[in-house]
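Researcher: Hi, I'm a grad student and pretty new to this. My advisor asked me to get structures for two proteins we've been looking at. I'm not sure of the right format, so I'll just paste the first sequence and hope you can take it from there.
Model: That works fine. Here's the first sequence with its structure tokens right after it:
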Amino acid sequence: MSIPEREHEHGSANSTTARLYGALGYGKDHFKVDQTNAAALDEILPGMRLIVPGNRACLRRMVATAADLGIRQYIDLGSGLPDQPPNLHEVAQRTVKDARFIYVDNDPMVCTHGRALLQGSGVTMIEADARDICALYRTYELLSVIETGRPVCVVLGAILHFFTDDEVKEVMEELYDFLAPGSLVLVTHATSDQPHYRPEQVQAARDFYEEQTGAQLYLRSVQEIADLVLPGCVPLRPGFVTTAAWHPDYEYESAMIPRAPYFTAVAAEVRRPVETRQYFLLGTTQEAEQ
């Protein structure tokens, strides 16, 4: 998970968001300072080390669900380095063998390493700013892979909480302009609704994170997130829940999933009328059109 260059506007940072995310998720591509910062965050807010594995597991279940619904095209915005199998394209291609998957990240180093790792058919990594959907949809790399008139599954995993409200609105509005009916958006987002912690604990963790990375976090309530991302689409069952609670018994995932209640998750269908949504959930896009 990476965000645009804005994380460096506040000067030199001890960690980057991508490296700290990897350290929290037991990844390989980070430094000792990132391990130290991850341990410090876990001490401030016990259980922080469960957030990233829990988020990844939730996104895998979401993508597996999208593949079961027959979606063949995927775009992961702010993907970070796809270095922890099974990666999302591997999940999709287990069900849809010819699924096409685009990873998008703004970090040149992430993209360079990502392209070296991604050797499979139908998988591409694009260096682009997730805040500028219009520019992304004009790139040859995307247009050579994605058929814009067909449903696409867009992954927004742990990225929108780095965007201002206006930026989130713009991203979602531009996505809805481009995405065909029957497309899905998959969102996980850090939330300020934290019943297990005192507000001062959450604030201390946020302050430490921002100090170490230079990136600003926008923690939102579930209602605030819904108001930003749901206009233009209809949430699928079970709606907004914690990442741990999003279809935790889905057959794709093993029983050994770390349970962390710190991120909220929702999958939503684009421009599909409520009265026909049940057909899309149960069948194909063609059935939904009938």
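Researcher: Oh nice, that was easy. Here's the second one.
Model: And its structure:
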Amino acid sequence: MSDSRFDKGLKLLNEIDGEAGQNVIDSLQDICPDLARYTIEFPFGDIYARTELDLKSREIATVAALTALGHCAPQLKVHLNAALNVGCSEQALKEVILQMAVYAGFPAALNGMFAFKEVLAERSA
């Protein structure tokens, strides 16, 4: 069925993350394909598909949360790229990460900023 949570989620995942999202899905196929499916269905098929926030706002919230957690560098990098893909500016993302120093502490903000530095370097290469 083309209107399934999975199909809707996969379409959004590809729009937001492009190849990076598909790489995560592919990397789970040999160990836990169910986790790959859940990663598409719930976050993207259910939450990202809601209309109350646009994709840019959702990615800003996601970058803030992953930065605040402080230990999610791989996922943060994916969502920093996604935020840039959906129209967030580099300066706005720097401000989001900087804001997290107030609420999550300097170590989390430093880790976030270093992750962003890597993303920007990879994108310019």
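Researcher: Is there anything I should tell my advisor about the second?
Model: You could mention this: The longest helix spans residues 106-124.
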